[in-house]
Specification:
94 residues; 61% helix; 0% strand
């Protein structure tokens, strides 16, 4: 048994070098819906990127239609969209 374990350990070490242990041990978060390009710009919502729209809908706790409505109303900058959605919720719409 110990011999099999040593072979397995050796094979794993060769397959997964210690030079990048974080990538092996920590997979990307499952709820991160933004693409790598979109992550670089957290100040704007790309309304043409459905994955990004879903990300912001989840992030702002509204449905996709509300994100699109907010972007149509105030533009694609996140903070005005956030304020619009908050004002709409407080003003009677939820």
């Amino acid at each position: 048994m110990a011999r099999k374990q040593k072979k397995l350990d050796k094979a794993l070490t060769e397959s997964f070098p210690a030079s990048d242990p974080a990538a092996i041990l920590q997979p990307a978060p499952a709820n991160d819906l933004r693409t790598s390009d979109a992550k670089a710009d957290m100040d704007h919502i790309d309304i043409d990127d459905e994955q990004e729209v879903r990300f912001w809908a989840q992030e702002l706790a509204v449905d996709v239609a509300r994100i699109k409505e907010a972007v149509d109303a105030v533009g694609n900058k996140v903070e005005p969209v956030r304020r619009y959605l908050k004002a709409e919720t407080v003003g009677g719409r939820s």
